[in-house]
Amino acid sequence: EILTASANEEETLAAxxxxxxxxxxxxxxxxxxxxxxxxxxxxxxxxxxxxVCLATAHPAKFADAVEKIEGGT
Length: 73
Hints:
By secondary structure, the chain is an all-alpha fold. It has three helices and no strands. It is elongated and about 35 Å long.
């Protein structure tokens, strides 16, 4: 079975903030979409215990997005 998920800009920024607050780890927007999808899949399939989510870029490449989450907007 294949599950899919997407994230709009607000959800992407929320995933970036959540990762920064919960794990003190700054992720790039592409990785944040992956994390958003991971949380979505976990909510659909809570019986699955293990997941892997790979970061795909460095946050420094996305200064505008990082500025939004650091500024709290």
